[in-house]
Write a structure and sequence with these properties.
The protein is of the alpha/beta class. It has three domains: 171 residues, 3-Layer(aba) Sandwich (Rossmann fold), CATH 3.40.50; 148 residues, 3-Layer(aba) Sandwich (Rossmann fold), CATH 3.40.50; 189 residues, Thiamin diphosphate (ThDP)-binding fold, Pyr/PP domains (Rossmann fold, 3-Layer(aba) Sandwich). The protein is built from 22 helices and 19 strands. The protein has a six-stranded parallel β-sheet, with helices on both faces. It has a six-stranded parallel β-sheet with strand order 15-14-16-17-19-18, sandwiched between helices. Strands 10-9-11-12-13 form a five-stranded parallel β-sheet, with helices on both faces. Helix 3 packs parallel to helix 5 and helix 3 crosses helix 16. The longest helix has 21 residues. It is globular, with a radius of gyration of 24 Å. The chain starts with a strand and ends with a helix.
Amino acid sequence: MAKVHGGTLIARALKREGVDTIFTLTGGHIVPILDGCVQEGIRIVDVRHEQSAAHAAEAYSRLTGRLGVAAVTAGPGVTDAVTGVANAFYSHTPMLLLGGRHLTRQELMGGLQEMDHPRLFHSITAWSATAAQLDRLPDYIGTAARRAFSGRGGPVFLDIPMDVQFDMIDEDAVTWPSDYRPNASAGADAATLDAIVARLADAERPMIFAGAGSRPGEDNPYPELAEALGAPTYLNSRARGSLPHGHPLLGNHTRSQAMAEADLVLALGVDWDFRTGYGQKISPEAFVVQVDADATKIGWNRPAHLGVVADPATVARQLVARAAEFAREQSAWSEGVMAADRAKQAEFEAQAADESSPINPQRFAKEVAEFFGPDSIVAVDGGDIVSTTARWLQVSHPGHVLDPGPFGTLGTGAPFAIAAKVVFPQKRVGIVYGDGAFGFTGFEYDTMVRHRLPIVGVLGNDGVWNNIKTFHRFSFPDRLVATDLGRRPYADVVASLGGHGEVVTEPSGLADALKRAEASGLPALVDVHIAETMRMSSNYSQ
């Protein structure tokens, strides 16, 4: 029987898990892993910073439903990836970070980049460990995948000493694990489902608030559920796109109003955190049905009158199957809420008609949304520019809006988009940046150029940290500091790396610039000069 090295075992285990791509920044401590991936036909996408590798692995998992994997070298390679892992942790995304590790025989001797990596990850992973046994490497990968996909899901970390990766072993001396994690997501039991259906049937003013969408390859139950219940429906996080753009029950502006007036709130995978007012905007008289795969989220920050530990999308499908028991025509209350939503949108439409320069952010957002349309995958990266653009995006497929999630990380845009273009090479993939966010991972345009990934980025450039400047001005108006950037030539940076870059200063030129960017066939950045605004972010005003 032939001998193989540890890196080959790791790659084969990943391939058995369904992994066809890994994201990396090379280093001596992971050369055998990369060699194994070459042998096994796993695509290697090498980026310019380890944070980007981790972010890309998260996006890969969100878009495919399979395990996203990043491999980074020891010491600073691992520490550079911490932010990406933390983002996945707070977004509850399954992913695996593989780290190199110093030689076992040099433990505690001060070897190159020696570090006890797993301790670093205990608070931001579902599991972290060192794989010290060559013949058990596939078992370690199986354990990592099982932990990553448990509950809501989350990141896991595994480092492998360099000598374990290089050591050789007979193939027949290795045991390959199988059937090591569940095949289906759990729904509600019969009695609990009966209780939910009864509450829905009795409600006069129900609303739906979903934060967990269906997984890739699964049926999307949310349109049928909303239509059966006749309920205003609000989506955030991974549920965005679960109702198509323009759906008559999809609310964008009246969530707070609906929560204050509803007599029943069906919360499907929603965190009652700063993004949702900690759940305190819900009427005290409302009955809250909260469904979540993580039991610790039930009743977090506000009571759940009926708390259900189950997969939210699976429960939504169960409810659709019993829709005849609670189906009704849209109520006058629901119609009024949606009318208010349309009226608010009309206010933004008026702002978007502004022809002034620098460009009104609402005009920017509308033009960008119309360019990307309903079928694109759009990564959003920034502060105010993200919340502004989110009102306009037309994305109509679950999971196709890639936002960083509750950790509020800047720099996710480029690596998220890289993963999206790798997974869906025929789809239009875009990034909406703030100029501040671009500074974190903007050099990943080099990665896009090298790997021939024609992604269209559009940057709202107001020359300031707008979100923070507004907050700083509100708090200490006479001592503003570290809030101004100036309008830097970001498009020139992209062009110098081999991409397409251009600047737009007039609203009439934006649509054509976006078309030219796509027609170039290159990774592109359209740098749009927008007006500075003074709007207090809800992140700081809750």
